[in-house]
Amino acid sequence: MKIREVLRLQSEGRTQREIAASVGSARSTVQECLKRVRAAGLAWPLPEELDEAALQARLYPARTPPPEKAERAKPDFEAVMRELARKHVTRRQLWREYRTHHPEGLKYTAFCVQLRTWRKTLGAQATLTLEHRPGDKLGVDFSGDPAYYVDRATGERIAAPLFVAAWNFSHKIFACATASQSAPDWLTAHADAFEFYGCCPAAVVPDNTKTAVIRACRYDPDLNRAYTDLAEHYSVAVLPARVRRPRDKGGVETGVLMAQRRVLAALRDQVFFSLAELNAAIRTIVEEINAEPFQKREGNRNELFETLERPAAQALPPRRYEYGKWSAVLVHPDYHVQVDKGFYSVPYRLIGQQVQARAQARIVELFQHGKLIAAHPRVERPWQRRTIEAHRPPEHQAYLTLGFDQLMERAQRIGIHTAAVLAKQALSKKHLDEVLRGALGIVRLAEDFSPRALEQACGAALQLGTFSYRAVRDLLVAQGRKSPRRGARVNTPATADLFHENLRGAEYFANKTKH
């Protein structure tokens, strides 16, 4: 443009001094320019097809390098850039390798300058600026530098990772110190952030830390199961940033930088004796940051959040998220599974199958194929059992609900003698299980023989003063009222001889006395 202006003013009859003052250049520069114009055979007005680049090339052609420099072998800068991407590889190391093959090649400074020039020829990378919507995305990340507190008992200085969250639209930030960067602390920090804001975003944007992403993928990342639970609980999407693309979460990156400069710097000389004390101090500084006016626009983070962000965000669910540890467990033959140091029942039809357990602080949930099949309160002591009666097989339920009162009711329906035998035999036992076993055996004899035969046998047992199961059964066999059912166990009668034809009754002893 200056060359064109010099030629225009020169065609109007202006002196070289006036032209130099007008274009802001030295008079010698104007003289040199006019000299080159005459040498190129140009005059004002210039031809329309002669653009600025062509004019620059005709008046100031590029210098031809000396022959000794032109002959020097140029490095393969594409290969150099590929090698620089590898770990521990430096430009100086690549220059040494280049000079090994080309001893007369470029010096190190020229090598670096030409590499820089070659990179510029590739063109600058364009940056896309996105318009963030209110209530849409919340960036989350851990700061690289931790805060610290001191164990009062041991005096140990303990590092506490700093969790930071920031909205992409209002830039309102949240920060807290955590005990570690493990999954429970990572997810608990999310829940604390949502409660601090009083609402939920449509999506959270983490990086590819293992507590969030098991397998990184730009198009279909494999999320941690516990992170998926949190997303489902709060109805939010998880959109991990691309690997080594910090601009994907620029909002939280700015928030992390601010937390490091404002929070960590302000607390660098203060001493705290618990994580709660440390977080109280962090909360005060965070509130100051959110209330400070913006530097280049009106308002502050709190005003922008309350005016536009919160109305567009989601409401919190009625219940706060609680971290749960997932594990695959096998259903034992007793239709229970072991989770940590406790046993929990599932429907008996799942014996031998694998189910998924989610152990929370106060509850254990059991799933199969994503469907909830059981939920139990956590055991209060190690190796305790939690059982839902509906999970037991019918025969187990019947056995466990069996009591002496129920057996007495069944005996009374059979007859008064049967009920009396049960009452008598109960008095001769020392343990409730003995009473139940004997009474159940006697009542079941009504199925092996018949209720009528059992009632008659119990009447005979009352006369003889014997009330055991074996005695009643032997009396039934001896009476021959009915043969036992096929497959029923028949013992050698111990009291059958009381009714055979050679029984010595009272008449025998009376005749013996007469003789």
Molecular structure report:
There is one protein chain. The chain has 515 residues and is an alpha+beta fold. It has five domains: 58 residues; 43 residues, no CATH class; 176 residues, Ribonuclease H-like superfamily/Ribonuclease H (Nucleotidyltransferase, domain 5), CATH 3.30.420; 73 residues, no CATH class; 98 residues, no CATH class. It is built from 20 helices and 16 strands. A five-stranded mixed β-sheet has the order 5-4-1-6-9, with helices on both faces. About 4% of the residues have low confidence.
Mean pLDDT: 82
Tally the structural domains.
Answer: 5
Read across the widest sheet, the strand sequence of neighbours is 5-4-1-6-9
Report the helical percentage: 40-55%
CATH topological fold name of the largest domain: Nucleotidyltransferase, domain 5
End-to-end gap:
163 Å
**Weakly predicted, low-confidence segments:** 485-503
Instruction: Provide a count of the helices.
Output: 20
Largest sheet descriptor: 5 strands, mixed
CATH superfamily heading of the largest domain: Ribonuclease H-like superfamily/Ribonuclease H
Overall geometric form: elongated
Topology:
Elements: H1 2-11, H2 16-23, H3 27-40, H4 52-59, H5 67-70, H6 77-84, H7 91-101, H8 108-121, E1 137-142, E2 147-150, E3 157-160, E4 162-167, E5 173-177, H9 183-197, E6 203-205, E7 213-215, E8 222-223, H10 225-234, E9 237-238, H11 250-266, H12 275-291, H13 301-312, E10 325-330, E11 336-339, E12 342-345, E13 354-359, E14 363-368, E15 371-377, E16 384-386, H14 394-401, H15 404-414, H16 416-427, H17 432-448, H18 451-464, H19 469-479, H20 506-514
Parallel strand pairs: 1-6, 6-9, 12-16
Antiparallel strand pairs: 1-4, 2-3, 4-5, 7-8, 10-13, 11-12, 13-14, 14-15
